[in-house]
Amino acid sequence: MTAADSDEAFREQQADPPPRRGRRRHRTRRAAKVTAALLVLTAAGAGTAAVLAPDDRGKAGGNATNGLPPATAEVLRQTLKDTRSADARLGFGRERTAVGRLPGTLTRLPASGAEITRGKALYAVDDQPVVVLYGSLPAYRVLAKGSEGPDVRQFEENLAALGYTGFTPDEEYSDATARAVRRWQDDLGVKETGTVEPGRVLFTAGAIRVAGLEAEPGDQTGPGRKLLSYTGTARAVTAELDTSDRRLAKEGNAVQVTLPDGAAVQGTIGEVATVSKPAEGQKKAETKIKVVVGLTDARAREAVRAYDEAGVHVTFTAGTREDVLTVPVAALLALAEGGFGVELVQGATSTYVPVTTGLFADGRVEISGSGIARGAKVGMPK
After folding, report:
1. Angle at 73 between CA 70 and CA 79, to 5 degrees
2. Best CA proximity match to 109, nearest among 97, 93, 122
3. Among residues 299, 301, 238, 308, which one has the least CA distance to residue 269?
4. pLDDT band for position 307 (50/70/90)?
5. What is d(CA 88, CA 240) in angstroms, rounded to the nearest whole number?
6. Are 335 and 354 in contact (CB under 8 A)?
7. What are phi and psi of 207, to 5 degrees?
8. Residue 321: per-residue pLDDT
9. How far apart are CA 126 and CA 380, in angstroms?
10. Residue 379, Cβ neighbours under 10 Å: how many?
């Protein structure tokens, strides 16, 4: 062996010394999983988890002589709630955009704040109205005799709701449907063709409220031209969450809304959408979770009548666990064989105990396992 080879071997020994015998060697094997543990805890919504490698306890100020951890924490029995609060805005929910479909000149537009119900004109092109109808399917084709499908049923149900008769609302556009359509067109003041152009109607989830205008009478319009924005007519709260808090935003979940006067009312998550915000000035592009909360409770609707648009706070709850045993997240250790454990301290000795984790919230985690009981002590980093 040359002198250079000897130097290289010495450096390798210094960089990775052989494990000590006994308990300290066992700890080193456990420390191999710490990085993976951090990733798991972050994904679980635990925030910044200080998972300590047992082999580092001496460096952290622990008792190197007896091997006990530098600090301990008590196992508590409590109700654990995974909650987050977010700033939000009281208004009318998510805004949508109405775009032109028919070429021509805009001759009528509604006022900002106007409410438009089924069968009423939203705007007019060349003095011909574009009408609001209710439904989830957008108008995407000409409806005429012989057309079949769910979009036909949707249109016919609207026609019947407006009081037109002589046909059966189903998925077939019949002669009877065409006759009813001509009566409807006569009432609208448009050409009586018996067919329905896709640009003549706008299907919405219900009555709408005009939020703002992006055009004015006299402007030319056509396919894709943005004309106005609209919302629903019911009061709603809109909040934005980071993508890491997606678990909090589940449709149908109850939330608490705190109004400007401090009053708390209940709401229900009605809509969840992922939105991308482009870079603007000094702000980088980002992705957010937009959540629309409906105020379905009568008391809540009455409480918000005093406000037009206002800043509010929403408290989201992703999960609740009642009467469970918890420890600080930092007490968790990654086990070499997989999963997590804690160092159970009993007097002058300690034992590593595998545990099953549950809900993470407010820096604590639900655990269960052999020897885990209320009042027990577990090891903590300094």
Report:
1. 160
2. 122
3. 238
4. confident
5. 7
6. yes
7. -60, 145
8. 93
9. 75
10. 24
Closest listed residue to residue 150, CA positions, set 129, 166, 173: 173
Q: Closest Cα to residue 173, out of 143, 193, 135?
A: 143
pLDDT in tens, 77-114: 999 998 889 999 999 988 999 999 999 999 999 999 99
CB burial string 321-340: b at 16+ within 10 A, e below: beebbbbbbbbbbbbeeebb
What is the tens place of the pLDDT at every residue in 228-261?
Answer: 999 999 999 999 999 989 989 999 999 999 999 9
CA distance 220 to 313: 42
Closest CA to 66 of 12, 112, 23: 23
CA distances (Å), 162 to each of 117, 176, 220, 294, in order?
11, 16, 31, 27
What pLDDT was estimated at residue 94?
87
What length is written for the chain? 382
**Rounded to whole angstroms, how far apart are CA atoms 270 and 305?**
20
For the stretch 174-179, contacts whose Cβ atoms lie closer than 8 Å and that sit 24 or more positions apart, written own/partner, are: 174/145, 175/145, 177/145, 177/152, 178/144, 178/145
Please give the average per-residue pLDDT across 260-278, as a whole number: 91
Contact yes or no for 180/194 (Cβ under 8 A): no
d(CA 155, CA 161): 10
Model-wide pTM > 0.70: no
Residue-wise pLDDT tens digits, 132-158: 999 999 999 999 999 999 999 999 999
Q: Which residue intervals of 32-174 are DSSP H helices? A: 34-43, 150-161
Sheet holding 208-213, edge to edge: 96-99, 226-232, 208-213, 115-116
**In this structure, are residues 366 and 86 in contact, taking their beta carbons and an 8 Å threshold?**
no
Q: Give the separation between CA 141 and CA 151, rounded to whole angstroms.
A: 9
- pLDDT of 66: 59
Q: Which two tokens stand for residue 270?
A: 């009605």
Give the amino acid at 178: A
Tokens read off for 222: 């056509």
Strands of the sheet containing 104-108, edge to edge, are 201-204, 128-134, 121-125, 104-108, 220-221
Pairing assessment for the beta strands 201-204 and 128-134 based on DSSP bridges: parallel
Q: How far is it between the farthest Cα atoms of the chain?
A: 104
